[in-house]
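Hello forum,

I keep getting stuck at the same step: I have a sequence, I want structure tokens, and every attempt I make locally crashes halfway through. Rather than fight my setup again tonight, could one of you with a working pipeline run this one for me? It's a single chain of 243 residues.
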Amino acid sequence: MYGWRGRIGLIVPSPNTVMEMELHKMLPKGVTIVTNRVRFPEVSVKALELMESEIERASLELLDASVDIIIFGCTLGSLFKGTGYDLKLSSMIQDKTNVKAITTATAVRLALRALGISVVSVVTPYTNEMNQKEKYFLEKEGFIVSSIKGLGYAQVLCSGRECPESVYQFARDTTIKANCDGLFISCTDFRTIEIIPILEKDLDKPVISSNQASMWMALRCLKIDDEYLEQFGRLFKLQLVFE
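Reply #2:
Ran it on my machine without issues. Output:
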């Protein structure tokens, strides 16, 4: 039996319907999640900037819930201004709240490195414009993007309505043709948790998703490494080096 182990504060874009659900599926005993939202009315740079302006407010409100760590749970929202932007956001949150903070973009790049993935295939629900921002970020961080393909959704809510089976087929068909070390499925509003182990088996490659990487990094910061988490992919099978 576990006692109290920690509380995760989660900030998500307002239309996101997936990240909370997936993080709760992975949640270890003794850990809880409280969530706050920031406005993201459309898929655009202008909306990403609006979301950025609300992060401080959302962080301070989570502080009222006595959280132990804060996740800014948006992939594009934590990388759209290029390399170093993810760390700038987490530093801003930490400075305002005095609570450890991470972003999804930071979690993803650390997860890729932890699994030894240097050449990555990327699938997203995004438009080509947004994909290019992600490609630029990853390449500036030292990764080779062998392919990046999106579903082209320009409207919010669309990505969250995709069933895991269709995400699996899209990711498999894209990656099986790519010369890569591993697969990254981007977007915290994309259902992936059910399909990661299946993809890893079918592709014989490690698979990372935005939500999986976010939870992995948050639990590493909380010094939690439960064996049952291994069902969510190779990432959780790594021996964690706690900070």
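The two ends are 25 Å apart (CA to CA). If your local run keeps crashing, start a new thread with the error log.
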